């Protein structure tokens, strides 16, 4: 049992209690999506996030490739030897000592508003002590009910965290095989991407979006082989990982397999089977909870991966303060936003010598504008662009633009 100092937390609760904050998190979970199939599928809405993301098509499952232990690790930031979930029954769990990260965040910010929308009921029913203010269960493989329910949650001006879970890809794999050569499996991935697009458009349409600092995390729990998963094959363990926002580096990470703690295939935790040097530089499941938690509590000055009371296994992928300041120093301003007509982009770093590339991407990932500004102010005429959401990239800075 962990020991918490009551006076310390009462003080923190007083200092950090408020109804809503600038830093917010959207987590999109897509069950059972192999990395090779994800790359093969046409996913324009998720692809549009890549330019502003730390992402990897070479993330590796380091635990038990069942949904129960996988999503528990994703939400708690610890491996199954701590949370004790080893199957989809969620039996013998230890959510008292290792709760999902919204509960940890609320130890510092008790008024955080956190919601989950899930097609798989056990995520709501069996992961207890989760810290959700609002939990919505929708029909399995529904896609659009999930997206529509997520849109409703995002219309709440005070929401701080939303986890939207899609199950269609996994169900399709179980009924028709987990294979990039299976058109039904690929189609399921593409269908989920379309639903995710609806969620992202609702996020960008928030009246307060331009003044909010959203971190978007997208993750799958496992891959699959033939009609199932649960083993240690590359097809089951080779997954992908994505974090999008201004607070993470915009980079692709290619990393070798760090190994699995479940190397004996009998749910025995064995740290000797993991290369910790590779693990340190690999985006993995526990990093989702730790990175999301770090973003939500960032203003407290606490880095959750080094907080001994929480004893987390994941690491945060947020930029350190010096890197954040360096990006902020580019001082790129964009106005008006939303725009109808002329868009102005300004930066003191736009010079002939710096040669900073200015690019505009549509939501399906197409580059619709490119230029290298030679003075502090650059004008972009948007009349001929379709109305919608765009991503503006200026060097390492990315900003969402709405063209009306």
Q: Beta fraction of the residues? A: 15-25%
Major beta sheet summary: 8 strands, mixed
CATH class of the largest domain: Alpha Beta
Instruction: Round the Cα radius of gyration to an integer and report it.
Output: 21 Å
The span between the termini is 55 Å
Write the layout of secondary structure elements.
Blueprint: H1 6-16, E1 23-30, H2 35-40, H3 44-47, E2 53-60, H4 67-76, H5 80-83, H6 101-108, E3 114-118, H7 122-125, E4 134-137, H8 144-154, E5 161-166, H9 168-176, H10 183-204, E6 213-219, H11 234-237, E7 238-244, E8 251-252, H12 276-280, H13 285-296, H14 321-328, E9 333-335, E10 342-346, E11 358-362, E12 367-371, E13 377-381, E14 388-394, E15 397-403
Parallel strand pairs: 1-5, 1-6, 2-8, 3-4, 3-5
Antiparallel strand pairs: 2-7, 6-7, 9-10, 10-13, 11-12, 11-14, 14-15
Helix pairs in contact: 4-13, 6-13, 8-10, 9-10
Describe the structure in your own words:
By secondary structure, this protein is α/β, with parallel strands linked by helices. It has two domains: 6-322, Alkaline Phosphatase, subunit A (3-Layer(aba) Sandwich), CATH 3.40.720.10; 329-403, Immunoglobulin-like, CATH 2.60.40. The chain contains 14 helices and 15 strands. β11 and β12 (367-371) form a beta hairpin. The longest helix is centred in the middle third of the chain and has 22 residues, at 183-204. Residues 1-19 and 322-330 have low confidence and may be disordered.
